[in-house]
Amino acid sequence: MQPDEGLFTRQLPGDRFREQTDPVLQLENINVSFDGFRALTDLSLAIGVGELRCVIGPNGAGKTTLMDVITGKTRPQSGKALYDQSVDLTTLDPVAIARQGIGRKFQKPTVFEALTVAENLALAMKGDKSVWASLRARLSSEQDDRLNEVLRLLRLDGERYRQAGLLSHGQKQFLEIGMLLVQEPHLLLLDEPAAGMTDAETEYTAELFRTLAGQHSLMVVEHDMGFVETIADRVTVLHQGQVLAEGSLREVQANEQVIEVYLGR
């Protein structure tokens, strides 16, 4: 399963200056507090271009707040959040951040259930228009090619004209991922993307993410350690708003602090 590279990614502005090891996202000493509660404390994290990173941690560890900071939903009290080496995400609103090439998928799939699968993808592709204007507008040949490639990649090509509300839960998850992909993101943030999927759907999701890595950078927040094991090259463990450990899954599973606070053995 190999997507057509030309359909998905545009170059980042910083690519011409980038060394291979330079991060696409770099967070430095991020601090977030809500009414005295410290959600993130001096959190630092870097994700490389084309990397597939898993972020794990118990409930309340700061995973959602981390994604909120990256997407502009929450502004930190202090710290830096740099994208593409020079874009300060803390100065941008969520719409501007999305236009920079950062896409986010929440745990519960959100699709337009009364519209067809293809209409959902077309709406996402033309996100700067109203719903009605988007539905009336014709896709360019390039946009139609990209839509067809996403349908094929997500195994939804046979569901093109089906109402999204009639899809299975797993198919809705795939459709929402597709709604991100047609926007040609550079960085995908995925919150428990395999939640509620069948075993077969989960297996295909893992294969899909491994395929997308390299063309895109992916940050996957996940509780299912079996799923993490199938996809992750590198794992970041959060605890009480801080990075507790980082490394390969084998390395973090052997970390005594991780065992104590998260893995429970």
From TrEMBL:
Q: What Gene Ontology molecular function terms does this protein carry? A: ATP binding; ATP hydrolysis activity
One Pfam family, please name it: ABC_tran
- Identify the residues that the record assigns to the ABC transporter domain, covering every copy: 25-265
Provide the leader sequence positions. Answer: none
Q: What keywords would UniProt list here?
A: ATP-binding, Nucleotide-binding, Transport
Q: Which domain of life is it from?
A: Bacteria
Q: Name the InterPro entries on file.
A: ABC_AA/LPS_Transport, ABC_transporter-like_ATP-bd, ABC_transptr_urea_ATP-bd_UrtD, BCA_ABC_TP_C, P-loop_NTPase
Name a GO CC annotation attached to this entry: plasma membrane
PANTHER family membership: CONSERVED COMPONENT OF ABC TRANSPORTER FOR NATURAL AMINO ACIDS-RELATED (PTHR45772), HIGH-AFFINITY BRANCHED-CHAIN AMINO ACID TRANSPORT ATP-BINDING PROTEIN (PTHR45772:SF8)
Q: What NCBIfam families does UniProt report for this protein, alphabetically?
A: urea_trans_UrtD
Q: What is this protein called?
A: ABC transporter domain-containing protein
Protein species of origin: Klebsiella pneumoniae 30684/NJST258_2
Q: What high-level taxonomic lineage is stated for the organism? A: Bacteria, Pseudomonadati, Pseudomonadota, Gammaproteobacteria, Enterobacterales
